[in-house]
Design goal:
Number of strands: 0
CATH class of the largest domain: Mainly Alpha
Distance between the termini: 87 Å
Helix content: 55-70%
Number of helices: 9
CATH superfamily of the largest domain: RNA polymerase sigma factor, region 2, helix turn helix motif
CATH topology of the largest domain: Rna Polymerase Sigma Factor, Chain: A
Strand content: under 5%
Order of helices and strands: HHHHHHHHH
Shape: globular
């Protein structure tokens, strides 16, 4: 009786992905289709954050799911399936960059030093309400470009932790980093984003001039 109660309690606390993985291991391919549909968008976004290229991200997503399927026997259930899948996707993304850069090795640690050096302690204040100056599409584009401008090591940690919602521990496991390293990179990423975005939202900032109409000479009113 006690063993039955413990078994039921264990099943209730089990992540739904574990049951899907067990079905796949037992030969139910449709269960893997469910896992693909569940996580394909997240994996694509992560790959795009790293590769900065839509076509590469699509290839990475397909390769990651294929490799995860081929290595499913290695998944022991000690972590979430999604965390394990993210780690595969990150490795596939970095391999894609190696190929693109003709053999140049890519490391998660290489971007720890930035052109700005140490992140400054003082930052410009945020504008009271950025949405007063920018509509949603403009703000989204600014955020996208600003995130893309982060060093890769910071950008990937920020994407996993703050965009995809992984915990600090899950992010560390997915990237094969220590928890303190993840916290350090996340802090630096957030500070750099704040600094760079504040340049757009600083009170009195002048918007970019509109493009000159074709055929209109400079200085002539149209």
């Amino acid at each position: 009786m006690v063993a039955t109660i413990q078994s039921v309690a264990g099943d209730e606390g089990q992540h739904p992905d574990i049951a899907l993985v067990e079905r796949v291991k037992a030969g139910d391919i449709s269960a893997y289709d469910e896992l693909v549909r569940k996580y394909e968008r997240q994996v694509f976004r992560i790959a795009q954050h790293i590769t900065q290229n839509r076509e590469d991200a699509e290839d990475v997503m397909q390769d990651a799911f294929l490799k995860a399927y081929e290595k499913l026997d290695q998944f022991q259930g000690n972590s979430k399936f999604y965390t394990w899948l993210v780690r595969i996707a990150v490795n596939e993304s970095l391999m894609r960059l190696r190929k693109r850069r003709t053999g140049k090795l890519v490391s998660m640690d290489e971007d720890i030093e930035t052109e700005e050096g140490r992140v400054p302690r003082d930052f410009a204040d945020w504008a009271p309400d950025p949405e007063q100056n920018y509509d949603n599409s403009e703000l989204s584009e600014i955020l996208r470009k600003t995130i893309q401008g982060l060093p890769r090591g910071f950008r990937v940690v920020f994407a996993l932790r703050d965009i995809e919602g992984l915990s600090t521990e899950e992010t560390a496991e997915a990237l094969n980093l220590s928890v303190p390293a993840v916290k350090s990179r996340l802090l630096r990423a957030r500070l750099q984003l704040r600094e760079r975005l504040s340049r757009h939202f600083r009170p009195g900032a002048k918007p970019a001039p509109p493009p000159r109409q074709a055929g209109s000479p400079a200085g002539k009113r149209v």
